[in-house]
Structures are given as structure tokens and as C-alpha cells.
Design a protein that fits this description.
This protein has helices spanning about 1-45, 50-70, 75-85, 95-100, 105-115, 115-125, 135-140, 160-175, 185-195, 205-210, 215-225, 230-235, 255-264. It is an all-alpha fold and about 260 residues long. It has one domain (about 45-245): Orthogonal Bundle (Hypothetical protein af1432), CATH 1.10.3210. Helix 2 (about 50-70) packs antiparallel against helix 3 (about 75-85) and helix 2 (about 50-70) packs across helix 8. The longest helix is centred in the first third of the chain and has 46 residues, at about 1-45. It is globular, with a radius of gyration of 22 Å. The structure holds fe (ii) ion.
């Protein structure tokens, strides 16, 4: 009788313990995934600091656009990840050589560079259990709204939202910053390029939002911050401050460091 009376309480305690154990295991897995991404980002920096700086700026602009589009936090994390790793396929030896050494691209070099979304998706594929849509977002960041992009020729809303956002931020940054094979051009040129791509290269609604005064104001402020000398004073996080490389927040981490300690 006594045992029967206490059985529900025992069950509640057991269920609670099981829940806590599962939550801890899930948190550890999330941290493992985040650490893997952090390592990959360090690898991008080590391979090519310019690409490391580029992807961080693209992540900043993408988050501004995602936030302005009222996307929820979970979606913003997904977009940030796609932005940070959209060019990881450029670490591929043949592509990296072209990017690092060429000043003017030949047609065959351009073809080689066009393989980078596919290579990037392959590199990220093993992380599919942690980040199910990351590889797909990276694969599709050069698709175009009118279906003339690559590698799949996807059209309109068949292109993942993360890739549609990153495509705009990527173009804006690629034009306003120098690369080994192209010099930096003005903000005005970048705005025209985004505007000209409305409904052809880019999602028209997202272009309207990106070019709207409040969003553009935030993007230009982020760009100034990334390029400005005040960066070196304000941040010591990644060791790249002298080059004006923005911090990233790794906001996909679900818990603050203090909380992580408490959970262990
Ligand atoms: Fe790209």
C-alpha cells in the first residue's frame, strides 16, 4: 500500500530527472555544433582574411534586413549562419588559387568560381543534423529571382529566404569593398546595382526594404563601423580589429557563457 501511494511521486521525480538529462544532452550538442561553426569560421579567416571580413559584413547587413523584415529570432540565426558560411566553398584549392592570384578573371576561371556554392554545401553537409537548412542556403545564394542564377536555376520563392537575403547583402558588400579581382566602387554604384536587380536578380520586396531609408541608414552605419578606426578600440574579440573586421556574435548559442557554466 505504502509503495503504491508513493508511486506517482517517484514517477514525477524520475520524469523530471529524465527531462533534465535530455536537456543537458541537447545543450551539449548545440554547443558542439556552434563550436564546429566557430572553428570553420576561423579556418576561413586563416585561409583568406578578406573573405573572413566579407562574410562578417554580409552577416551584419543580412541581420539588419532580416530584423527589418520582422523575422523571428530563430530565422535570424539561420540567416546569420548562411551569411557567415556562404563563401566557404571558396576555400577549395582551385577556387582559392584563382581568387588569391588572379587580377582579371578569364571565362574558365569564372566557371571554376561558380562551383563554390556546391563545394560549400558539400563541406557543410555533415552538419545537417545540427543545421538542417544551412547547406541548402549556401548552395542557393547565387540563384536569381528570375531563374537565371546557378547552380539550380531556382525561381522566386523557391529560393530559400535566407539565400534571397544574403544575395542582396553579398552584392552590396562585394561592390563596396575591394577584392583581388575587382576594385571597390561607391555606395551609389552598389545601391544602383541592387535596385537594377529588383525582380530580376533579387526578391523585389526585399530590395524595397533594403533600400528604404531606415534600413539603408543602419547598413551604412554598420559599414562605417566595420571600416572605421574606432573598431580597434571597441573590440578585442577576434584579433582582426586592425583590418576593420566586425565581430560576430555567434547568436545561435542558446545560452550565455555564465549560464553554460551553471548548466555543466
Ligand atoms: Fe558567393
Amino acid at each position: 500500500m505504502t509503495m503504491l501511494r508513493h508511486a506517482p511521486l517517484v514517477l514525477v521525480i524520475a520524469a523530471g530527472a529524465l527531462y533534465l538529462r535530455e536537456r543537458r544532452a541537447r545543450t551539449r550538442l548545440e554547443r558542439l555544433g556552434a563550436a564546429t561553426l566557430e572553428t570553420l569560421l576561423d579556418a576561413i579567416d586563416a585561409n583568406n582574411p578578406d573573405t573572413g571580413a566579407h562574410v562578417r559584413r554580409v552577416a551584419r547587413y543580412s541581420l539588419i534586413l532580416a530584423d527589418s523584415a520582422d523575422l523571428d529570432e530563430r530565422m535570424q540565426h539561420r540567416i546569420e549562419r548562411v551569411a557567415l558560411f556562404h563563401d566557404i566553398g571558396k576555400l577549395d584549392g582551385a577556387v582559392a588559387d584563382i581568387i588569391n592570384e588572379s587580377t582579371k578573371l578569364s571565362p574558365s576561371e569564372r566557371r571554376s568560381i561558380r562551383t563554390h556554392p556546391g563545394r560549400g554545401a558539400q563541406v557543410l553537409q555533415p552538419l545537417i543534423a545540427f543545421y538542417p537548412d544551412l547547406a541548402d542556403g549556401v548552395l542557393t545564394h547565387h540563384e536569381r529571382w528570375d531563374g537565371s542564377g546557378y547552380p539550380r536555376g531556382l525561381k522566386g520563392r523557391h529560393i530559400p529566404l535566407s539565400a534571397r537575403i544574403v544575395a542582396i547583402a553579398d552584392t552590396f558588400d562585394a561592390i563596396t569593398h575591394e577584392r583581388s579581382y575587382s576594385r571597390a566602387r561607391s555606395i551609389k554604384v552598389a545601391i544602383s546595382a541592387v535596385s537594377d536587380g529588383r525582380g530580376r536578380q533579387f526578391d523585389p520586396d526585399l530590395v524595397d526594404l533594403f533600400l528604404s531609408p531606415p534600413v539603408m541608414k543602419q547598413v551604412l552605419a554598420a559599414m562605417r563601423e566595420a571600416n572605421g578606426p574606432q573598431r580597434a578600440r571597441r573590440s578585442r574579440r577576434n584579433g582582426n580589429e586592425a583590418q576593420g573586421i566586425p565581430d560576430i556574435t555567434f547568436r545561435w548559442r542558446t545560452t550565455a557563457p555564465e549560464q553554460q557554466k551553471a548548466d555543466q
